[in-house]
Amino acid sequence: MEARMRSLRFSVSSLVLPAVLGLALSGAPAPAPAFEMGPDGVLTLAPMLDRVTPAVVNIAVRASVAAPTNPLFNDPVFRQFFGLPPGAEMPRKTVLSAGSGVIVDARQGLILTNRHVVENAQDISITLKDRRVVRARLLGSDAGTEIAVLQIEADGLTQVTFADSDRTRVGDLSVAIGNPFGLGQTVTTGVVSAKGRSGLIPDGYEDFIQTDAPINPGNSGGALVNSRGELIGINTAILSPGGGGNVGIGFAVPSNIARAVMDQIVKTGTVRRGHLGVVIQSVDPAIAEGLGLQRAEGVIVAEVAPGSPAERAGLQPGDVVVAVNGEASDSAEVLRRQIGLSPVGDTVTLSVLRNGRAVALKVRVSG
Fold first, then answer.
1. Residue 190, beta-bridge partner list
2. Which runs of consecutive H residues, i.e. helices, occur in the chain?
3. In the record, which residues are listed under signal peptide (predicted)?
4. Distance CA 83, CA 104 (A)
5. In this predicted model, what pLDDT tens digit does every residue of 139-188 receive, in sequence order?
């Protein structure tokens, strides 16, 4: 029953009236202490935010979506009776919505946001701090990570600095910046509550950062930054009882994943998933005992497809993959993400345990 009361919500704000657009600030991002003492003796985050918030913009989207229709319109007999030709497009309507985005490359005008913010977009407008409104072009999006990349042409842009999200720790200060409910730019604070969350996107490539910094509808695509004002994630979703507002469980796509997806989209306009050609399973205590491993860690290879990149590299059934390029492969989901987000054509090094011996194998990732 409790599970039924919970709903995962992407935090995009859909508006019936034209979107209420907030403002951003202006300045140059730079590492700064988490808190500083203001001239009046007040402990504050304001100096850091003055440098960071210019990179967070408000996004207004005009999108075309399918209009609600009677289910009978999907019945072929009904359609034939009323003279509706097979395959005829169903009625559509135009909706307005608002979200957030983060400028990550001022020179090229690149903005990271969420895919669901700009899905089916016919027109995308970006509002900056100085109240300029500029049109944006969608370069591409990725359903597997919920990341989209926009591009604008404007002078005087400021970009946020990427952090290495792999080094983010549970307990680190986190600051969420976005446009909740179309109110305008809003800042909330909290901590990183957990890392490595998955299961939010069906068949997705997930490694979400969880934070208790309040994230609400409209924050989608906004920035999650650390105490130095560096980007550690793109705010994406919230978990809330009964589809309500924030209860302190929000999720952000780690900046390392967002950056990898962006690089592929900018180069090719799309994201190609890497694969090895193997069937894998997480090592549990029973498997570890059967293999004589000291700990239940890594991913066991159950099958290797003939002619696959894995076979060409010498990977064998029974091998246990424990790391990719030095990054631990703690589960089958992690290994799938590591390979899936590796650029097709790149060569990765697999750290493998084979019959109690450590083996390093170089594999060329295929698409």
1. 174
2. 2-5, 46-52, 76-81, 115-118, 255-268, 285-291, 309-313, 332-340
3. 1-34
4. 51
5. 999 998 999 999 999 999 999 999 999 999 999 999 999 988 888 899 99
CATH annotation of 165-268: 2.40.10.10
- Look at 82-96, 235-249, 286-300, 335-349 and tell me which has the smallest mean pLDDT: 82-96
Question: 25 near 17, Cβ under 8 Å?
Answer: no
How far is CA 109 from each of CA 159, 177, 230, 235, 271, rounded to the nearest angstrom?
Answer: 9, 19, 18, 20, 20
Q: Can you say whether the dihedral through the CA atoms of 107, 173, 117, 134 is positive or negative?
A: negative
The reply to whether 278-364 shares the fold of 165-268 is: no
pLDDT in tens, 103-144: 999 999 999 999 999 988 899 999 998 889 999 999 999 998
The neighbouring-strand residues paired with 224 are 176, 233
DSSP code per residue over 49-113:
HHHHGGGEEEEEEEEEEEPP--GGGG-HHHHHHTTPPTTPPPPEEEEEEEEEEEEEETTTTEEEE
Is domain 12-151 in CATH 2.40.10.10, yes or no? yes
Per-residue model confidence as pLDDT tens digits over 274-300: 888 889 899 889 888 888 888 888 899
Residue 151's identity, in one-letter code, is Q
Residue with tokens 């589960």: 331
CA 340, CA 196: separation in Å to the nearest integer?
A: 16
The secondary structure element, H or E, covering residue 13 is strand 13-15
Q: Are 237 and 206 in contact (CB under 8 A)?
A: no
Say whether 253 sits in a helix, a strand or coil: strand
Specify the CATH architecture of the domain 278-364.
Answer: Roll (2.30)
Q: What's the number of CA atoms in the CB half-sphere (13 Å) around residue 114?
A: 32
Q: Check: CB of residue 224 under 8 Å from CB of residue 263.
A: no
Q: Which residues contact 220 (CB under 8 A, 6 or more apart)?
A: 10, 11, 12, 99, 100, 113, 114, 116, 117, 178, 235, 236, 237
Say what the pTM is: 0.77
